[in-house]
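Researcher: Please translate sequence to structure tokens.
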Amino acid sequence: KAGMAVPRLSEASLERLASFFTLVGASYQNPIDMGSNRDHFGEILSTLIGDENIDVLVMQLSAQMWVRTPNLIEGQIADLTEVRRQQEKPVAVVVVAPLPQRQFEAVTTIETKLRAAGIPSYPTYERAATALKKVADYYRFHRGD
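Model: Translation complete:
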């Protein structure tokens, strides 16, 4: 709806992901649903960020998951921060909160950690897509594309 495409991953990325992905409750087609593959989070990120078809990495983090397993989300934020530091492609996060009134503290904590790492966060995929499209249009305009 925002005018951006969700590209197919390169064959090299699909092969790399297929080498370890457990497909129970998951998909390694773009967009990726990690399902039970969270142990491979860093490898998934490096595969995506290294894919020539990917211009921006948008990740979903769950406030509900933070409440249940904050160490898991802390680790994912650390991995995202490292990926952001090591390369030029933009990284953004959608912080999902099925019960925002009850999960306000978790959302605020996650967003604060992301902001400290220089990673923008959004409450919905629509808001993320709209913001990223505006940034892309701005840079295209100034490059003369």
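Researcher: Any highlights?
Model: DSSP finds six helices and three strands in the chain.
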